Amino acid sequence: MKNTVVVGAQWGDEGKAKITDLLAEYADVIIRYQGGCNAGHTVVVNNEKYKFHLVPSGVLYKNKFCFIGAGTVIHPETFLEETTELIERGVDLSSLKISPLASITLPYHIDIDGISESNSGKNKIGTTKKGIGPTYSDKIGRYGLKIQDLYDEELLNSRLDAILPLKNKMLKEVFGTKTYTKEEMLQYCKKYAEIFRPYVYNEWVSKLSGILKDDKKILFEGAQGIMLDIDYGTYPFVTSSNPIAGGAATGSGIGPTHIENVIGVTKAYITRVGEGPFVTELTDEIGEKIRNIGGEFGTTTGRPRRCGWFDAVLSKYCVLVGGLTQMAITKIDVFNDFDELKICIAYKDIRNGKIYKDYPTNINMHKYLEPVYETLKGWKSNLSDAKTWEELPLNAQKYLKRLEELVGIPVKIISVGAEREQTIILENPFK
Ligand code: GDP
Ligand code: IMO
Ligand code: MG
Q1: pLDDT for res 390
Q2: Whose CA is nearest to atom 8 of ligand 1?
């Protein structure tokens, strides 16, 4: 068994898609297990850029079974746009399937997310406004629709009878926005039932048990990151699902006993989009330099990403709650022109000087924390063509070794550029 989870070990956008795409070559099955079209996953192959939101990043290889699991929320319009574009670009989607148990992001979920964010003033989360929170709330509250509900007219009618009166009351009286008639919703559901039909996979139980029996190699693709996890992230400034590796089990329907490796993808620095605490954030010209060189603007929303130095305190926490077995470090090339690099090794409470080496999960006190840094020398050369560890400049090797030491797990993959080829794989989990 080599089954491997790729999980973001910061606040998202770590380069998970690049790592998933890379490893997908060696896997038989790729499963996206949580999140929705809040995800923006970029893969670059031969100068061609692909942006995925819902479709697993392994889809660029032929004949890999790509599955969008029960833990995801699917926005029909985004799915249609994304699949249409991929087909137009010649990508074969015949092996792409959706779990009938996945939830649907409905038009009013998007409306509610947008209005909630606009009305929240200082308390806003800074969501992607893709309806993620409202869809997951309805799922947990048992007020949602699942993909399979689209194909049973009688059931769909009775579900809408149960859902719509309350939803419309909320839309009108709480949010002051437009309501939806049952007829409108039925038409919407009918349209997308047809669009989803070739992808819906009702045979997933026998398929997945066959995959396990035949010891096929499974790659689980996480969206967002551990620090955005609804339970373990910086709540309430989080997403509404479980990106942590445990979420791979619940979101795919494949138990934790079938998972062997968990790759935590982290940038050589950290970024965050949206609100919430960020102890190593750089609001000065160094942050600006990282943002510009790293192209740190959101794939989904285009927002500038907040940037900061690598935080080993946070990373150790991610190793713990994410069950990480190894790291993939991305975007190390962004530091090619830096004289020195800082790594946060502890937090200091400015009120009393108390030092925290373990991540304090109470974010209400993070405004009192400042980073304690260790400084390392930069390498001041272009490492983007390095193909092996030995070809990396000595100071880059030292930086990576220090990260390993501080975080406590080995670095097995080093990404030195956006292209698939610009990667040093020290150990392939599938080989
Ligand atoms: P994800 O959401 O974790 O998949 O990450 P995103 O795709 O949102 O953001 C990562 C960005 O960095 C994308 O534009 C990638 O093409 C790019 N990228 C990934 N790895 C590297 C790398 O090693 N170096 C550089 N310069 N860019 C990278
Ligand atoms: P990928 O998969 C970075 C952030 C939003 C916001 C918070 C809640 O590309 O790494 P949501 O729309 O989920 O309710 O927003 O989570 N967020 C992400 N940040 N990358 C993502 O996905 C994100 N998905 C959500 O910015 O702070
Ligand atoms: Mg992203």
Answers
A1: 98
A2: 13
CA distance 190 to 323: 42
CB of 299 closer than 6 A to ligand 1? Answer: yes
Nearest to 72 by CA among 38, 102, 99, 110: 102
Give the integer Cα–Cα distance in Å for 2 and 177: 49
Report field, pTM of the whole predicted structure over 0.90: yes
Q: CA 369, CA 371: separation in Å to the nearest integer? A: 7
Please give the distance, rounded to the nearest whole angstrom, from the Cα atom of residue 403 to the centre of ligand 1.
19
Omega of the bond leading into 165 within 30 degrees of 0 (cis): no
Distance (Å, whole) CA 113 – CA 134: 7
Which of 50, 228, 278, when mutated, tests ligand 2's pocket best, judged by the most ligand atoms within 8 Å of its CB? 228
pLDDT, position 119: 87
User: Relative to the CA of 39, which ligand 1 atom is closest?
Assistant: 2
Rounded Cα distance, 346 and 219, in Å: 33
Task: Answer yes or no: 41 catalytic.
Answer: yes
Judge contact between 248 and 310, C-beta under 8 A: no
- CB of 14 sitting under 6 A from ligand 1: yes
Split at pLDDT 50, 70, 90, the class of 300 is confident
